């Protein structure tokens, strides 16, 4: 079968099309004919060798697929060991979820990693309460675009979208943000406070990291919560001064989806809810681009350049 393999760590150039034997499911696994595989920032970290927990070479990237089992069921499933960038993959049977007919392949893939991340950071990490103000950094991205919609659905009083271009800001407003601001660091805090009628905010969601994370801390009010769920800037992790946090009773939390899925009601229930919200039109996952499997390199290049919006999909 055709697949994309990484034999050495590096940038998108190490994503090489190859022919490999089709996988054979072990007990507790399902064979899936891949209709589409999702592209994530985590895939770029695995490819360059910087992923948390490490990655052994060689490997086939791709941690989420949607496709058909031999008996015809249309399934969505994660495969954190990798293997999704291929014509067929084996997935854990206990993690495979049926996809409603009203949900397209790209939409389903957007819900698996990005959707679950947005759901958890709002529900469980930020503990968003009705009426609170929320800042979503990278608001036009895969997680950000869903976080904007879910924050409104969960009852946020004001959703402030931060994005890098006027086009992305306008998109976030169309998705339900009350206001959008330029995410450039120079003047960031002032723009965010102005967007919240001059007041600090209750929640900041950040996947950029580095100095952007520190800027987000500056706009939090008392008992405000910042949730960090990524490091797209590839900057060093900033040190957080506990005394500074204590002065305003602020909270900085970290989030990683993989362990969260193992918690009680951490996977099946929220994913089923997200699929239902999508099928009924209450949220709209964005699909930012469909690429042939052989163009995996270009998909990674576009993702790293931050030139895309929404979910990127590879199709065998």
From TrEMBL:
Sorted alphabetically, the keyword list is:
NADP, Oxidoreductase
Q: Pfam families under this entry?
A: ADH_N, ADH_zinc_N
* All copies of domain Enoyl reductase (ER), residue ranges: 10-314
Under SUPFAM superfamilies, the record lists: GroES-like, NAD(P)-binding Rossmann-fold domains
State the InterPro entries in the record.
ADH-like_C, ADH-like_N, ER, GroES-like_sf, NAD(P)-bd_dom_sf
Mind telling me what this protein is named? Zinc-binding dehydrogenase
Q: Please name the source species.
A: Kribbella alba
């Amino acid at each position: 079968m055709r697949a994309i393999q990484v034999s050495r760590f590096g940038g998108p150039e190490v994503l090489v099309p190859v022919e490999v034997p089709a996988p054979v499911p072990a007990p507790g696994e399902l064979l899936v004919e891949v209709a589409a595989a999702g592209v994530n920032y985590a895939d770029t970290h695995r490819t360059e060798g910087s992923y948390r927990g490490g990655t052994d070479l060689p490997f086939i990237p791709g941690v989420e697929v949607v496709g058909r089992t031999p008996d015809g069921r249309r399934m969505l499933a994660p495969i954190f060991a990798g293997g999704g960038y291929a014509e067929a993959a084996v997935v854990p049977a206990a993690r495979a979820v049926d996809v409603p007919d009203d949900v397209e392949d790209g939409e389903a893939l957007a819900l698996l990693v990005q959707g679950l991340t947005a759901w958890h950071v709002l529900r469980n990490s930020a503990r968003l309460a009705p009426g609170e103000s929320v800042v979503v950094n990278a608001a036009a991205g895969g997680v950000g675009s869903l976080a904007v919609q879910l924050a409104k659905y969960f009852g946020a009083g004001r959703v402030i979208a931060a994005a890098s271009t006027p086009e992305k800001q306008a998109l976030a407003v169309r998705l339900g943000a009350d206001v959008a601001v330029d995410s450039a660091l120079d003047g960031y805090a002032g723009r965010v406070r102005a967007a919240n009628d001059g007041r600090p905010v209750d929640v900041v969601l950040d996947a950029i990291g580095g100095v952007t994370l520190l800027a987000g801390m500056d706009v939090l009010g008392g008992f405000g919560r910042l949730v960090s769920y990524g490091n797209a800037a590839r900057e060093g992790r900033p040190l957080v001064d506990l005394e500074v946090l204590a002065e305003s009773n602020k909270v900085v939390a970290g989030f990683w989806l993989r362990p969260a899925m193992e918690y009680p009601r951490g996977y099946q229930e929220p994913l089923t809810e997200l699929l239902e919200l999508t099928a009924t039109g209450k949220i709209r996952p964005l699909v930012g681009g469909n690429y042939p499997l052989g163009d995996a390199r270009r998909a990674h290049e576009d993702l790293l350049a931050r030139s895309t919006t929404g979910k990127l999909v590879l199709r065998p």
